[in-house]
Amino acid sequence: MPRIDSASSQREGDEIEILTFAGGPFVQNTLLVVCEDGRTGLLIDPGAATPEALAAARERELEIAALLLTHAHVDHVDGIPAAKAETGAPIHLHPLDQPLYDNAVEWAAFFGVPCDPLPPPDVELEPGVNLSFGGSEFEVVFVPGHAPGHVMFVSTSHPLAIVGDVIFRGSIGRTDLPNSNYGVLMESIRSHVLTLPAETRLYPGHGPETNVGLERGTNPFLLHLNGSRWA
Ligand SMILES: [Zn+2]
Ligand SMILES: [Zn+2]
What we know:
This protein is an alpha/beta fold. The protein has 7 helices and 14 strands.
């Protein structure tokens, strides 16, 4: 069963809503972002629970403006064929994850999960560039380490960030995979995640949401970074 979380900002008439649909053997989170205009939707990392996310988008009569990928591990892209077929929305991917994307079907076979061939990405994500959809704006931030072309999407108007597999509640992304790098991941977390305001909500690719302050204080994988190095 998909798990659905909903979070709204406190600001009246200026809401952004993030619905989380968890599914598949990796219990991956497919996110449906409802933009501030209330009519535009974004699908982020369409994985195994993509059918449930698409159903929610239909129910709310959202127009899906983009399929955004934090990275191209197979559990984050195996819903792309269905999402693209239904919405026709452009697929955004950082070019350094193109090789992973191109091999998704092989990776799926390796893990024993189904994955149809993926349509090619439409847009190259560019770090430092802001993406605007339906009155909501996100900065694309380059956070490699778990995957070579991993990015996160940081709201420019609300304290929230969609972080993929960089950091989880009480944990960090795997770095035992091909093309992963522990040192690079730690530097991404130290310089780009922990430097966000403490109240920033983090929406990860697996598990529950968390926030920067909680992870600074309690994440066992980050305690050695203590000493206000992110101040
Ligand atoms: Zn991953
Ligand atoms: Zn993942």
